Amino acid sequence: MDWQTVNNMHVVKVGPSLLERLDRLIARQHHRAVVARLRHFRETLQADMSPEEPWTVLTAPLVLTLADICDALYLNEAEKAEVLGERGQNAVAEVLETHVTVRKEDSAR
Known about the structure:
By secondary structure, this protein is mainly alpha-helical. It has four helices and no strands. The chain has helices at 3-7, 18-48, 62-72, 77-108. α3 packs across α4 (77-108). The model has no long low-confidence stretch (mean pLDDT 85).
């Protein structure tokens, strides 16, 4: 190989850059964390339900389920509000208010 050939050589990228590899690594770790949190959420549902009522047939308003998933993913209040939207936040507040009211009436008896 002569010097003229060496001077005309070009570097060709053959794989992802270090930054791309780092991004992929971080994404994989994030996905693993999300999967672990969701698995823990499911396991908690299973533990809280009786054998006669498996968690797979749980009947609940979807907005409450979504709010619980937000909690399982450790979303802060702003992130949870973004996921639920204004209407969803109002629906959750109404349901929680209803449950608090019912509990107060039950405890007064």
